[in-house]
From TrEMBL:
Its EC number is 1.17.4.1. GO terms for molecular function: cobalamin binding; cobalt ion binding; nucleotide binding; ribonucleoside-diphosphate reductase activity, thioredoxin disulfide as acceptor. Belongs to the ribonucleoside diphosphate reductase class-2 family. This is Vitamin B12-dependent ribonucleotide reductase. Residues 1-50, 890-925 are annotated as: Disordered. Catalyzes the reduction of ribonucleotides to deoxyribonucleotides. May function to provide a pool of deoxyribonucleotide precursors for DNA repair during oxygen limitation and/or for immediate growth after restoration of oxygen. Residues 78-168 form the Ribonucleotide reductase class II vitamin B12-dependent N-terminal domain. GO terms for biological process: DNA biosynthetic process. The keyword Transport does not apply. It comes from the Bacteria. The lineage of its organism: Bacteria, Bacillati, Actinomycetota, Actinomycetes, Pseudonocardiales. Its cofactor is adenosylcob(III)alamin. It catalyses: a 2'-deoxyribonucleoside 5'-diphosphate + [thioredoxin]-disulfide + H2O = a ribonucleoside 5'-diphosphate + [thioredoxin]-dithiol.
Amino acid sequence: MTETVGGPTAAEQAADAATNGAGTHGAAEQGKTRTARSGKNGARAADKGGRAGLTVGRVFTTAGSHPYDEVTWERRDVVMTNWRDGTVNFEQRGVEFPSDWSVNATNIVTSKYFRGAVGSPQRESSLRDLIDRVVGTYRRAGIENGYFATDADAEIFDHELTWMLLHQVFSFNSPVWFNVGTSSPQQVSACFILSVDDTMESILNWYREEGLIFKGGSGAGLNLSRIRSSKELLSSGGTASGPVSFMRGADASAGTIKSGGATRRAAKMVVLDVDHPDIEEFVETKAKEEAKVRVLRDAGFDMDLGGSDITSVQYQNANNSIRVNDEFMRAVEEDGDFGLRGRMTGEVIETVSAKKLFHGIAEAAWNCADPGIQYDSTINDWHTCPESGRISASNPCSEYMHLDNSSCNLASLNLMKFLGDDDQFDAATFAKAVELIITAMDISICFADFPTEPIAETTRQFRQLGIGYANLGALLMATGHAYDSEGGRAVAGSITSLMTGAAYKRSAELAAIVGTYDGYARNAEAHQRVMRKHSAANDAIRANPASTTIQKLATITWKECLALGETNGWRNAQASVLAPTGTIGLMMDCDTTGIEPDLALVKFKKLVGGGSMQIVNQTVRRALDNLGYQPEQAEAIVEYVAEHGHVVDAPGMKPEHYDVFDCAMGERVIPAMGHVRMMAAAQPFLSGAISKTVNMPERATVADVERIYLEGWRLGLKALAIYRDNCKVGQPLSAGKGGEKKAEPETVTVVEQRPVRRRLPKKRPSETVSFTVGGAEGYLTAGSYPDDGLGEIFVKLGKQGSTLAGVMDAFSMSISVGLQYGIPLEFYVSKFSNLRFEPAGMTDDPDVRIATSVLDYLFRRLALDHLPYEKRVQLGIYSADERTAQVNENYGTDGDLDMDEFRSSVPASTKSDEPAGVDPAPAEVGSSTELLELRLGKAADAPLCMTCGTKMRPAGSCYLCEGCGSTSGCS
């Protein structure tokens, strides 16, 4: 895109169009940027045709053609059900979307973002309606506020923005889709920071403001350190309550608002400075509550997340973080003392061992994942507006950090959209996309509404923006880079540097047209200093072949940014963050969220017309091609991954390439420090911070947590949180694994519950079935309890005394004992059906015509004989008569069956047409996390979605539902 301050003539525009080759994706630099000094309001020409403003060149679109005309549209039915009980949560039929949008993206956009009552004529029914509503509002506001040189430029801006949204190149944060262009308040921000002072009026106002923000579906954070401690006196002579006691009231308020109709938890962050006298009480709050949860759970109370008894536990609606400064961290390194200071006088009222306090922080995080760490000195060293106040808190996910009573508008780019067919990252087009998106984000502040007047005032004065990206993990894997590698970090750092450099460059260009942010003059020197720090960090990147081109363009961009900023100032106090990209990541069909690596190599995917598949990530095949594997080798490896879920011992796979395919979960996981190092690679190029939780294995120690928190400080991070597997009790389906457990306090009574074996009586009913699978003959005898219910099995297969017969006897015995201890038959059916090994093939059973193994046949037969129809439906197991009845119900009898209609109802792509690594998903699986659980044989520490019941997946420091797009607290 070409931008100028003065309006070009018609001849100049025509020449530009001819030179630029309109509509070329990834075009080279189009023209030169001309800037002029301007005051706050920018230079304006007298006549409308020559007014100051941006001249927008085409990058993605073609002159004379609307973006909508370049895609194939189709009508779809969106019917979303609760995965657990089959009830319909949402239904809208005949919605219109591009044919290349996935079912998941279609479902989520239709159910979450379409406005108007379902079933009414006012209800949006096409993606066009949604994009037009939002983009049209941005275009009108841009014209009204003098952003464009001509009306033609405004139209090109409209088309470019539309094209990128239509092709899933980027997405605004959820509040934009919810509110912009509607009769509701035009709230565009997802991240809020509040403030509270040491007065009862301020504390009660804190409760009120949080409630208003929660009601709107957003979250907020604040620092409680101004509230005097419980070790200080009130003016009346009594002892103060302290911030922890007031946290209890705010927590109850958040829980009440959540349960009053919201389908997700209230998202909030509570921060306390490390030198606050009540810091030790704050550190232990959630750890003590977690111990309470364990006792109540063992006593038989329902303490799962969302359970009926979990509400009796306090402090569960907030993320807690400690603000540590360099003074404290150096005292930890040197094993020195550290002073806790009174809030009223600032004097030291208590001295503690820094190392002991730090150990307590790490131990609490080891126990229950809270508190996280925020590195105060680093945060404020990168602060562009220190003259207007310190940065003391963050939003709930820790990526937005700026002044109190402020907000941030987010948008994220899909990095995979900039990876060309040659597997090169198109840095030039990426930079131009960033410039256009930042322009739109800044325009939104002109018309935005805010939940409180102080937030509105601060945001309009400082115009904080938060551009970021998603799909980094997929990009690195696709290009053959390990997530935890120097090459991978160089690519991530270079992209982040270019993104922020391009964003601030555009901000400086906007300052010449519509003025700097109101607080710039007071903070000009500090803002310029931070820009120079970003530029210097870019020069320090250790480039590799994949990142060299990106870094070179970033270097040029930062040089231009500094020059423009010195002349014009900047329009925005903040430009970039890395958010979780939960719901919008699904809208863009991203494989990975934010800065996260891939969850696993095999994913769950919904299909058009119903049904689901388990599919090996497409990035796996692309990575294998980049690593030099021949097509036959790559296909064999993909088939192996489809069966095993990992690349270890895959045929022809080189061990030195294993780390390219490491994931967040699975057989090979990225080490905790690998996550920290990746964060450190991106942090110097972000105005804000990074929403990410560092996952640690269950066997990790408190010392490991201490090491992570120390390294985060040394590497220059702004915030860091950890999560140790199975550290929280309040998670549904948590794995019941053994291993070392932290000793409970002496006052805790541990109630141990053991399963009881229910033996069969001497005389019991049984039936025997003879079978043949792939030519192998055998017998299955199933014995039942007199009051019904399978209790034992015996399998005769192979000659007496043979190895096979002995193995089957032992297998039968273990299954029988398990049944008698209460393991449900459906669990065994889900585990052993679809297993593949010889003998396999045709059977002599009319209900199970083909079996992939003897065990597959046995457990399908047992399901048919001993499970009710409702449970078999969930497992996808039907008798021959039931299948016939279904066909008759759907298509009529044989005489009524229209074969043309029947053929048109069958998906065009059959198994043979699918790429390697695609198989039907197990019937009991509803998300990628549940598919991974099935492969690993243990449960993941993730909550169930409150809307549709599927297992959520990690997204930054929150959780995301792949089924309906709900999040655990991030918009």
